[in-house]
Amino acid sequence: MEKVPSAKEIQEDLQEYIGKKYGGKIALAVPDYVGSKDGVKGEEEEILDEIQFDMRPEELEDYLKLYVVEQNEAVEILSTKICTHFHRMKFEKENPQNEPIIGQVKSNILLIGPTGVGKTYLVKLIAGKLGVPFVKGDATKFSETGYVGGDVEDLVRDLVSEANGNISLAEYGIIYIDEIDKIASSRGHWGPDVSRTGVQRNLLKLMEETDVDLKVPHDLASQMEAVLETQKTGKAPHKKINTKNILFVVSGAFNRLDEIVRKRLKTNKIGFTEEERKTILGEEYLDYVRSEDLIEYGFESEFVGRLPVFGKLNELGVDGLYKILINPRNAVISGKKRDFKAYGIDLDFDDSALKIIAEEANKEKTGARGLVSVIENVLLPFEKKLPSTGIKKLTVNTDVINNGKEVLANLLSEDAISSFQRNFLVANGVVVEFTPNARKKLLESAKKGKDIAKFLNDEFSDYGYGLKLTGAENIKINSDTLKSPSDYLNKMIKKKYKNKK
Predict the structure, then answer these.
(1) Most exposed: 217, 297, 413, 422, by fewest CB within 10 Å?
(2) Distance between terminal CA atoms of the chain?
(3) Strands 431-434 and 474-477
(4) Residues 296 and 260: beta-carbon distance below 8 Å
(5) What are the CA-CA distances from residue 445 to residues 189, 419, 439, 455 (Å)?
(6) Residue 73: alpha-carbon gap to chain centroid
(7) Distance in angstroms (rounded) separating the CA atoms of residues 405 and 402
(8) Rounded CA gap, 378 and 401, in Å?
(9) Coil, helix or strand for 142?
(10) Residue 107: what are its φ and ψ, rounded to 5°?
């Protein structure tokens, strides 16, 4: 009689099947764990101990400044408010006798700043330091397809996946939504052309407090999990995740928001003198953003009310981009070094090259992303060619940046010559030398696209046997030899036998 599999065995088989079919993003929650809405918290007390609730704002601020440059205001705001958010949750959990505060507003945060200045990077760093699950979403996803049912709620469900099925841990996660300005409704000539108020209202529910059902219609993983839970407990599960303690951080570039602020300041005679208003320039207007400006931009007042904390990130100039590059913890340089190290090549950058990279990246106006683009454009030909050579070190200097094609040709030519010399010595016991003029000629050929390694191997393939006839232990190749290597070898052999006679 065939053995009936246990619930655990069925779950393992299903997890393996779902993983192969849908990838690692979908995970079955652990059947033994009952979600918080079933009245059993399970590991929640342990979760509170594991997350770094004891971190103080200044500690977190110092940590972030190790990685992020020229964003002191945003770093200060995020460090303070996020630490306070988690400390307050811990306090309320440890002091259940305190009556809940009616109408309490969670410290959800709005970040304003152009692309590539580190908005996502900051929030991800914080989540990693605190040890809470982190999910990023893009508001344009909701605006482009239209709001359909659980699109926004999927972000909450993704937290459970990031927490490996642990609902209690997911309820202390951070959800980050970028390009939030894209869901602003039309207000005169401000904001996008299509109304996004529906998306705002549905996000509003999540940012306040609501229960999100983990079981999604037509979701195979959820259905399979429900079958397992029913088999184990004899009743259909109804797992939910509550968003009360989930922190929401939203961000956007908010193009032309400064014009709304400027208009208000010019109209409002209170709080600013005429001279003070004249000294405020460009993006400095964003330092004075108020809720009424965001409402004018196209957001519902209730939505703005659920984002009580504002933070601005500054556009990075040449100096800021250079500071990123020289920061030993920056991912741009360290990531590129690792790319080359994967091929056994040590990559270094000298300071003059880093300054040029910062200047070029600043022209692209995409913040830190511009650094990646510039470096990739410079190093892509080297990354393609060098792994096939014996070159084990590359220093990126101004010559590499300004004359990359020529430098690469020179490197490949020198490597081809060295490789040929080494292989010829091993195979034939003969030392081959190239005169400066010969090297110069080979380099010129390489610049024209000639494969030097193939040329040397093809043209000098008979030299091993020929040099044995001459008894030579070394040979010097000049530019004339390169014109017709076979003729030069024949002359050597003839000369040898003529001398013998």
Answers:
(1) 217
(2) 97
(3) parallel
(4) yes
(5) 60, 17, 10, 10
(6) 22
(7) 9
(8) 6
(9) helix
(10) -85, 55
Instruction: Name the stretches of the chain with pLDDT < 50.
Output: 1, 30-42, 144, 146-150, 188-195, 218, 278
Tokens standing for residue 326: 């020289």
pLDDT at 144: 46
SS3 label, residue 174: strand
Residues 155 and 114 sit within 8 Å (Cβ to Cβ) = no
Residue type, 90: K
Tokens of 412: 């490949």
Which residues in 442-466 are b (16+ Cβ under 10 Å) and which e?
bbebbeeeeebbebbeebbeebeeb
pLDDT score of 474: 81
Give 309-350 pLDDT, tens digit per residue.
999 998 889 999 999 999 998 889 999 999 999 999 999 999
Q: Could you give the CA distance from residue 95 to residue 90 in angstroms, rounded to a whole number?
A: 8
Residue 98 CA to chain centroid, in angstroms?
Answer: 42
pLDDT in tens, 159-171: 998 988 888 899 9
The pair of three-digit structure tokens given for residue 484, joined into one six-digit string = 């017709």
Query: What are the tokens at 179?
Result: 């390009």
Cα–Cα distance measured from residue 107 to residue 105, given in angstroms and rounded to the nearest whole number: 6
Token pair 């030579």 in the structure block, residue: 472
Local structure of 188: helix, strand or coil? coil
HSE-CB of 2 using CA atoms within 13 angstroms = 2
CA distance 205 to 48: 25
